[in-house]
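User: Hi! I'm working on a homework problem where we have to compare a predicted structure to a textbook description. Could you give me the structure for the chain below?
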Amino acid sequence: MLMSSWFGFLVENQEYVKILNEQAEFYKSLFENVPLMIFLADKEGLIISDSDRLCEMLEVECNRLPGQEVSKVFDFDDDTAFRAALKKRNRG
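Assistant: Happy to help. Predicted structure tokens:
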């Protein structure tokens, strides 16, 4: 009984990992192929991921943006509205 439960657990997790990998590949392909300037940031305003088009327009290497603060990468006159939008988005 224990062995069959363990096997079921492994099979279910393999399917879950497969789905997560497929989703990750899908989002990675979006960021690499869409002709849009997009990025993902966490609730603290740190860039997590960026599109190739964004890096091209900013004239920076794509691996240089993740980890940087959005408000330091982009020239905001007043980043209060940006920070408020981040907080509002993360609550809902």
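For your comparison, note the following. The radius of gyration is 19 Å. The chain has a mean pLDDT of 76. Good luck with the assignment!
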